[in-house]
Amino acid sequence: MNMNFLDLPQLLSASGSVALPGSKSISNRALLLAALAEGVTEIHGLLASDDTARMLDALRALGVACAESGQGRLRVEGCAGRFPVRQAALFLGNAGTAFRSLTAVLALSGGDYVLSGVPRMHERPIGDLVDALRQLGADVDYLEKDGFPPLRLKPAQGRAGGTVEVRGDVSSQFLTGLLMALPLTGREITVEVAGDLISRPYVEMTLGLMARFGIRVETRGRQSFSVPAAAAYVSPGVFVVEGDASSASYFLAAGAIAARPGAPLRVEGVGRRSIQGDVRFADALAQMGATIEIGDDWMSACRPPEGLRGIALDCNHIPDAAMTLAVTALFARGETRLTNIASWRVKETDRIAAMARELGKLGARVEAGRDFLAIAPPEAGQALRSAIIDTYDDHRMAMCFSLAAFGAPLRINDPACTSKTFPAYFECLEGLVAAAPVIAIDGPTASGKGTVSARVAKALGFHYLDSGALYRLTALAAREAGVDWADEAGVAAVAARLDAVFDDGRVWLNGKEADDAIRHESISSGASKVAALPQVRAALLFRQRAFHCAPGLVGDGRDMASVVFPRAGLKIFLTASAEIRAERRYKQLIGKGMPVNIESLVQDLRERDARDAARSVAPLQQQPDAVLLDTTFMGIEEAVAFVLDLVRDRGLAAGRTGVPGA
After folding, report:
1. Within 13 Å of residue 249, how many CA atoms lie on the same side as its CB?
2. Which residue in 162, 196, 58 sits closest to 116, CA to CA?
3. Which of 128, 244, 320, 371 is catalytic?
4. What is the pLDDT of residues 248-287, one digit of tens each?
5. How confident is the model at residue 1 (pLDDT cuts 50, 70, 90)?
6. Disulfide: which of 201, 249, 264, 446 matches 281 by Cβ 3.0-4.6 Å?
């Protein structure tokens, strides 16, 4: 996988079973509680991700012994509420669960600490938590901008008891951090929540985990929480992290969109016994019409026969998983309206703005407000558009938008951002989905690959991509724009905005028929030159991959099998002698009334073969897994029949393959 982007074809179906990674929210809470507890805790099923790595780095820097104990287990030696290291500078990346909880705990732990993160973390508000901590005597300084990290925490001064107030309508992580820190004071403290408490299920999770580590918080109604005096964390001995319910949402949604009845998509590791609020995402899918089944530690989903329908939902209880609903809405009838999601604006990015922008690229009709998002699929009869999706260094943007590939080919920029919570996400997705097959036919100029490819595509009912025509169109467009073919940046800019259409065997450029123009020898020569330019090839790569749609694709071009579709289900290297290719080209051009000399054609083809084979970018060569088809002594019909036999032998004619990526 290219770490800069991942190209996904149009996905056709989803089914199977996936074991979920551990919950990020539980993992980071369990790590901190184990560190604060008296005794040793062995944590099983801990999530391995950037966020948990930041928490582990911080705890080790604070003197907490955390060691792998084999078979995915971590042994944490608790410090009984007092960190051995009393002065430290901690970098916490963009891990909100780590930053907010450690801010509260360290502010009341009697040490001198500096907490910082990535630039986006320094844009995420923390003032409400700091205000609450200052009510307890905490000494907290903002090192840059008031209300935002980075922070300097010094030993608390003054009172540490009574009642403290914290806002609940920005982030539940403020209340979570405060509750986890209060036992360090040794006094009875009551927290009163001002305003509506968002994401309450995450607070309920915190209370449940604190109870597992020996502290029961008394709750009065929905807004008041009391931590008893002399409360102290005690290790439970062994703690098992359940699967991540937020991560389950992507796979359950894939099942609701594309799993057939009788072949659902199932997630293992989270079910009716879960303590995570995001398990209620399954209820939202059921409201949309999906068929949902739930066991103690598993859930499954499949698409209803009549398809999904839009819903209106208050998402206060599932703020993270609600992002998945926004993309699922692309496959539902009518509008889906998600409300009470103001917390999206202070996450890894402004998720309301980012979701609206990227959904719009796909052709969705989107309305965004301060705390809501309304999504409707494209108008009836219109398909989703292929698009390049930006992810804003936000793991959930990358994962939820992968589901849009069930409607159109996509490019996901920065797919590695999923390492924050689910490093293996795309590998897991690949094992559960099926995509249309690709037949890639490479070969030298005038070998007949275009004719063979077009006829094979027609026989199978597949889409057809003439890759060479895109480069010819680029050369033609560059010449019309007055851009020299040697001007790599200039030609790449032309390629990026190329207005090209393939329709019923005809080629159009900027609304004008261009089939004859791009077949002229001068343009063919120009195409060979611009095709050797790396920036031009990069500009046209996704445009070619966007042809990978249902029910299948036949693509011809000199790097179809090596670069554009290296994982094609069938690769053919089609060739013929230079003399035979020149003779075929001669007949073609003469038939169009173009003056041509066959000797010059032979010489030109030999020179182009040598040039194409020697170029540094995508040189012309047969791939090791490609089938050689020499048509020197073979007619077109024989060549087509040869390819179709291979298609049937490999089971590709049905129009389905398990390989999702390019």
Report:
1. 29
2. 58
3. 320
4. 999 999 999 999 999 999 999 999 999 999 999 999 999 9
5. very low
6. 249
Please name the residues in contact with 56: beta carbons below 8 A apart, sequence gap of 6 or more. Answer: 31, 66
Look at residue 582 in the predicted model and tell me its pLDDT. 85
Q: Which of 133, 134, 218, 230 is nearest to 188 (CA)?
A: 230
Query: Any idea which fold 438-649 has?
Result: Rossmann fold (3.40.50)
| Cis upstream peptide for 551 (omega within 30°) | yes
Length of the chain: 662
CB–CB of 218/246 below 8 Å? no
CATH code, residues 5-20+243-432: 3.65.10.10
Question: Left (φ > 0), alpha (ψ -120 to 50) or beta: where does 461 sit?
Answer: left
Is residue 337 a contact partner of residue 374, using CB atoms and an 8 Å limit? yes
| C-alpha pair distances (Å), 638 with each of 58, 447, 456, 630 | 67, 14, 11, 11
- Per-residue pLDDT tens for 502-558? 766 788 888 899 988 998 888 988 998 998 899 998 899 998 999 999 999 999 987
Active site residue 320: yes
CA distance 200 to 633: 74
Q: Where are the domains of the chain?
A: 5-20+243-432, 24-240, 438-649
Q: What is the CATH number of domain 24-240?
A: 3.65.10.10
How high is the pLDDT of residue 282? 97
pLDDT tens-digit series, residues 153-195: 999 886 666 899 998 888 888 999 999 999 999 999 999 999 8
393's tokens: 């260094």
Q: Tell me if 5-20+243-432 shares its fold with 24-240.
A: yes
Report the interhelical angle of 534-545 vs 467-480 (nearest 10°).
130
